[in-house]
Design brief:
Helix content: over 70%
Shape: elongated
Structural class: mainly alpha
Radius of gyration: 19 Å
């Protein structure tokens, strides 16, 4: 997934990796705060913020996956329609 600011994307990817490693939102917020990482607004992380980041990233990932499936289905239909008439 690509966002406008590469630094934001790197932080989002880091949060998702921490979650994949088994940390919950509270643990991720504490870890980032202990590391001195601040949010986009320069403030500390809270579990609710981490949860929102994860939720939005997952939703975007699902939308992208659905778009890829839709494009593939359309390509299959186009290819099938051409082979029928050729």
């Amino acid at each position: 997934m690509v966002y406008l600011d590469p630094a934001h994307q790197a932080l989002i990817d880091r949060i998702l990796r921490l979650q994949d490693d088994g940390l919950n939102c509270r643990q991720i917020a504490a870890y980032l705060n202990d590391e001195g990482v601040t949010s986009w607004t320069g403030k500390r992380f809270y579990p609710e913020l981490v949860f929102g980041v994860i939720r939005k990233a997952r939703m975007k990932r699902e939308r992208v996956a659905n778009t890829v499936v839709d494009v593939r289905c359309q390509l299959v239909k186009i290819i099938a329609s051409r082979s029928i008439f050729e």
